[in-house]
Recover the amino acids of this structure.
């Protein structure tokens, strides 16, 4: 005769305890040695030794930080002032940088950047529009005869 049900069916119906006995059920905290991380430093230590990193005990011990949600974190697209000066002729030919008198006017959000960093050297006077700039970048551009103008609301998330 053909068998209609698999043997595991007896654990799914027809019995109140589903094969786990009447006293200590499998879902209670006593069968696992306590709730959550309790006992990891005593009677669950062999588990820690097998699954944790060698020296730190991670991920069972210590703080593990916090990751900001993408909704509130800013995706930074920085550029150094030295690289900005290197790209100046190319940007002027494309119309991204405009020359007003002796100064070049550069709008970083239009170029896709949202932060100005102070790496490199600047020899020409620049007027740079940017949402965020470091102190070094502002000082270097000011020494060269230019200025940094902060644009509010242009930081892209």
């Amino acid at each position: 005769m053909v068998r209609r049900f698999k043997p595991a069916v007896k654990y799914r119906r027809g019995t109140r305890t589903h094969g786990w006995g009447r006293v200590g059920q499998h879902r209670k905290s006593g069968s696992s040695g306590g709730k959550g991380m309790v006992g990891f430093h005593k009677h669950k230590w062999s588990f820690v030794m097998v699954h944790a990193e060698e020296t730190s005990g991670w991920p069972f011990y210590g703080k593990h930080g916090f990751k900001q949600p993408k909704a509130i974190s800013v995706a930074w697209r920085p550029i150094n002032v030295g690289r900005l000066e290197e790209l100046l002729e190319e940007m002027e030919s494309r119309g991204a940088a405009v020359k007003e008198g002796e100064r070049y006017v550069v709008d970083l959000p239009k170029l896709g950047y949202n932060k100005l960093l102070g790496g490199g050297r600047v020899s020409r006077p620049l007027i740079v529009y940017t949402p965020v700039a470091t102190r070094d970048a502002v000082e270097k551009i000011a020494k060269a005869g230019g200025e940094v103008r902060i644009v509010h609301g242009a930081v892209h998330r």
Remarks:
- The two ends are 67 Å apart (CA to CA).
- The first strand starts at residue 78 and ends at 80.
